[in-house]
Amino acid sequence: MLALHSILFPTDFSAHSQVAFRLACSMARDYHARIVILPVKTSEVVFDEYYPTFAETEEVRKALWEQLHAVKPTDAGVEYEHLFREGDPTTEIVTAAEEVRADLIVMGTHGRTGVGRLLMGSVAEGVLRKAPCPVLTVKMPSPEAVARKEARAREMVAP
Length: 159
Prior knowledge:
Layout: E1 6-11, H1 15-31, E2 34-41, E3 44-47, E4 52-55, H2 58-69, E5 80-82, E6 85-86, H3 89-99, E7 104-109, H4 114-120, H5 123-130, E8 135-139, H6 143-157
Parallel strand pairs: 1-2, 1-7, 2-5, 2-6, 7-8
Antiparallel strand pairs: 3-4
Helix pairs in contact: 3-5
């Protein structure tokens, strides 16, 4: 049996992350593990007339902290904590996993392939390659898959 004491949950606050968070919470509940919730803020570059500068305002930082603290398990019995990092997402996620001694990383993935992945990069792929522990990636189900699942559930209920 897999021993889970600490689950790292990196988030970008997207719908993909929300799907992964529900799974991470279920696993934390079932294994009596804690969840460490981690967003990574990348530096935003703004180009003014002559040279690039990094855009950072106290309002942006405050809004991110508020958004982070809104992410918490619905099950009161699940232990959790929040971390906040700035920098390269892959590097920061791997470093945080080492620091919190994560037994598992659960993260959402956008499931990009081909040119989309080439142009956008893949944080999930980078974490998979460098993580010090197993990584569970969760892809958001397609609308068609959700519709099929709902149809099957209705069929089971119908007389």
